[in-house]
């Protein structure tokens, strides 16, 4: 989870744009995640997935420059959503003792299709393409073995797979949106392989040449080169700038066609949904929204009076926010499942009560303002993991962007996610754009809708909560207060759509609200 200094540097509603792409290495020069300006919505107003991740396959002989071509495509794309480069080398099969001995003697054929676990590769790629998480194997070239650990991947808009057999298996080819074959001179491929294996994998020249003549060259002639007939485009292994630009232009066009913008319809649903629902959202009763609102006691009303005041000092604001978040989480606990429990007191009397029946439990805060509930959450539930999601607004469109995902282990593993209860923490539900995205992320990981408890300080009755409740009716929303209106305004100094002069971009503010909660809490 980002530390406090990172949170302090993030401004609510302001996007984070990397000045230069950053590569987070998952396996040296192979599986990488390129972090760019974030992942836009991959779902519609109904909460259902509207588009898959765009998958590009890059195949070719060993040393043809497949990884280099993949990186060139990314660099040519420029400012793009999150990209994953997925290497087929991670999916070599697990080897027994006899196979390991052959591998260390350069006598095991790693260039045959049977050396790769094609069903596992297809299953992991299918999950990533369907916007779900995947845990891919990690392969050690020095040990010639698949390791026990796995690497968690999620959130790509573009997936680039590369490998010598990337176009060989029909199940894999069915998952690709664009198929590329890198064609290269055999002498150049051998020279590149020699340089790579000596430098990166600690192999001897004699062993490399023996393996090349025994396995690599025959495999290329028999299995790899014939797959070029399946390619949509053939790219030269060097001097390929024109081909790279053509591929990048095609990908950019595909992403533009898949763009999905609907935050304004969430912010002011009564302008767009009257004809569908039959009644204005502003006329909806709280009972219709099924919100779990705290009892409006004098203590609670006093806390909100202090928090809404612009003259409240930061010290007092932090104190009462922590107090309010503690009350909210305590109230939210009643929506967990419980089982009867009987204990014997020290005087020998039976006492009947209940204990939590939730197998796995965790918290997930929507940064930055959601972090204001974490201290109260830990006061009440101090022995469960807490993860985070960073959802910020695009500078031009105002649409939500997913910039950071760090989820607890019980959510990252799908078989555990199905049995987990997740407390989703955010300061308010206004347009509900961040809430929409956060819930969709949890559902993509396999968390059941009825096991998500959304804990928040404020909800705007006239905002996007009515759409959120209609789309995700089984999510429990626990809030401290409900404000009636969302006011439409402009964020000055930011050039956005419909504002070519840079007057600002459209924003929606809850009234009366509590101001910029993240700024008031952390700054």
From TrEMBL:
Known cofactor(s):
Mg(2+)
Give residue ranges for domain Phosphoribulokinase/uridine kinase. 55-237
Query: This protein's superkingdom?
Result: Eukaryota
Matches recorded under InterPro entries? P-loop_NTPase, PRK/URK, PRTase-like, PRTase_dom, Uridine_kinase-like
Class of enzymatic activity (EC top level): transferase
Q: What is its EC number?
A: 2.7.1.48
Q: Quote the catalytic activity from the record.
A: cytidine + ATP = CMP + ADP + H(+); uridine + ATP = UMP + ADP + H(+)
Q: Which residues form the Phosphoribosyltransferase domain?
A: 295-488
Per the record, the pathway is:
Pyrimidine metabolism; CTP biosynthesis via salvage pathway; CTP from cytidine: step 1/3; Pyrimidine metabolism; UMP biosynthesis via salvage pathway; UMP from uridine: step 1/1; Pyrimidine metabolism; UMP biosynthesis via salvage pathway; UMP from uracil: step 1/1
Keyword terms of this UniProt record:
Allosteric enzyme, ATP-binding, Glycosyltransferase, GTP-binding, Kinase, Nucleotide-binding, Transferase
MF GO annotations: ATP binding; cytidine kinase activity; glycosyltransferase activity; GTP binding; uridine kinase activity
Which Gene Ontology BP annotations are present? CTP salvage; UMP salvage
Which is a Pfam family this sequence falls into?
Answer: PRK
Checking SUPFAM superfamilies in the record gives: P-loop containing nucleoside triphosphate hydrolases (SSF52540), PRTase-like (SSF53271)
Q: Matching NCBIfam families, A to Z?
A: PRK05480.1, udk
The family classification in the record reads: Belongs to the UPRTase family.
State the name under which the record lists this protein.
Uridine kinase
Q: Which gene encodes it?
A: UCKL1
